[in-house]
């Protein structure tokens, strides 16, 4: 009976499957995570570009933080809860007295109800402005390889940051 058991090849694929299946599942989950992140970031970039184009074409119109945020969220249809998870900064860039803007983006704290604006300067005619948008989202699978390697805040959210600059046109 022992010889028959030793020669039997039934179940011989269980061990390789048990060793390789977690790796393939991890790769699939990471692929879904990367695809989701790329889709959201591309959507944010495009929405920001479209909004800045609208701002440039709306000569002399001064937009508020809420108006720009609404315009970006209207253009970016694939960003869930965009109004509550998007934060904007508008920074005046002095070309004659150049100073690098703060590298760290101002992102919304999703744990709080209201997020104060760190920097929102609408500028004057012919001023060069930097508009920076930060959108936070909850990763698809924080336990996955890619989800575990992404930089998250204390609540587990990942920040996507997009920048665009434009010149405030005169009236």
UniProtKB/TrEMBL annotation:
Keywords: Membrane, Transmembrane, Transmembrane helix
Residues annotated as transmembrane: 12-32
InterPro entries in alphabetical order: TadE-like_dom
Domain TadE-like stretches: 11-53
Protein name per Swiss-Prot or TrEMBL: TadE family protein
């Amino acid at each position: 009976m022992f010889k028959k058991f030793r020669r039997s090849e039934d179940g011989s694929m269980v061990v390789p499957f048990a060793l390789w299946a977690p790796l393939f599942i991890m790769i699939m989950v990471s692929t879904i995570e990367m695809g989701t992140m790329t889709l959201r970031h591309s959507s944010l970039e495009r929405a920001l570009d479209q909004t800045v184009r609208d701002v440039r074409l709306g000569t002399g119109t001064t937009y508020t933080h809420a108006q720009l945020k609404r315009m970006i969220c209207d253009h970016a249809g694939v960003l869930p809860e965009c109004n509550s998870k998007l934060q904007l900064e508008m920074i005046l860039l002095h070309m004659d007295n150049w100073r690098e803007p703060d590298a760290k983006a101002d992102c919304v704290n999703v744990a709080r109800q209201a997020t104060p604006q760190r920097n929102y300067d609408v500028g004057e005619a012919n001023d060069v402005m930097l508009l920076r948008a930060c959108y936070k989202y909850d990763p698809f699978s924080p336990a996955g390889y890619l989800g575990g390697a992404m930089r998250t805040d204390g609540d587990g959210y990942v920040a996507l940051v997009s920048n665009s600059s434009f010149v405030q046109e005169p009236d």
